[in-house]
Known about the structure:
By secondary structure, the chain is of the alpha/beta class. It has twelve helices and 17 strands. It has helices spanning 3-9, 21-34, 50-57, 70-78, 93-101, 103-108, 116-125, 165-177, 191-194, 203-234, 248-252, 264-267; strands at residues 16-20, 40-43, 62-67, 84-86, 109-113, 132-137, 181-188, 239-242, 259-262, 284-295, 298-302, 319-322, 327-328, 338-342, 354-358, 371-376, 379-385.
Amino acid sequence: MRASVRRAAASLPAPCGVIDLEAFDRNILAMAQRAGGVPIRVASKSLRTRAALERVLEHPGFRGILAFTLPEAIMLARDGHEDVVLGYPTTNRDALRELRSDAQLRERITLMIDAVEHLDFFDAVAPGPGVLRVAMEGDVSWWPAKPLLRGHLHYGVFRSSIREAAQAAAFARTVNARKGVRLVGMMAYESQVAGLPDAAHTPRGVAIRVIRQQSLADVPRRRGEMVEAVRDVAGELEFVNGGGTGSLESTSADPSVTEIAAGSGFFSPASFDRFRGFQHEAAAFFGLDVVRKPTAEIVTLHGGGWSASGKPGADRLPVIDWPRGLHYLHEEGAGEVQTPITGHAARGLEIGDRVWLRHVKAGELAERITDFAVVKGGIIEQFWKTYRGEGFAYL
């Protein structure tokens, strides 16, 4: 965290969230450059702050939004955004009824599906004459072994059951035969490339680099085959979406992809410090105050247990950014209402001093605060309300 940002935000009451706007803007430019001219669809879950979302979309390298819940997508569409793709299937009954009954929303929002049961659910809970735009998701996780062993050798995330071109074509035919839906796009996300940090000099780091290397050859082939099979059935698609912040270069090189979904790189949370191929600037921070000093080498912060989602472990804990030379106590870690920390820098801290941290994931920080203080040129230029600050609790 730059000293000018720390000074500007020093008087804010803790806990507080801060955005270094100059770093944020440089990340926008860097991500557009890495995508090589392929449009980036902004993953709203990684920002959860409307002003930040709007600022990114002002840049010509970015087009459209990848939302994470249907109520959020409806909010964004009513706010004037005309191209909102829901990145995950939805079972929100009220939101589906609202979508089905509103022609403008139906034109602006695309639902994600990967099973006939999704279509059945739409018909059961939100019947009506309006046609819903849908996109199908294919799975491009890496399965390096034969089918009988696949349950034990799988790298990526479990999202869609559509893994092969024949399955994609069959599902496209099913969608085409259904009334009330129109297939307009596809998504195939290579999480084992985009989301796995690969810089560690450990056996795990070596394994991740092997997985990434093998996947970089496997993903374009399988994704391309699925896209071609769907186009043979449904005709030209409006979009084919893939990738993430960690795979902008490789995904943009895939000729079957028309756009890339990305969002974490704008804030560049702590998990993105561990990628080899690129390095964005840390742009989002949160501050906690020292409220106790039980020993000369231990200080206690008020709050701090803002752990990231995912498999529990030390790599889910916030990273202490400033002062340098501080770390958690093994027995307590990052606590709900207090977090004791230690290290040589603790000797220089007193009650009322500020410690700055970074969340491991990008958008989850916005669920903990009501607004971000936005710092530029060493001053707080404005405050951006988060979804939470606007009273939204989408997920």
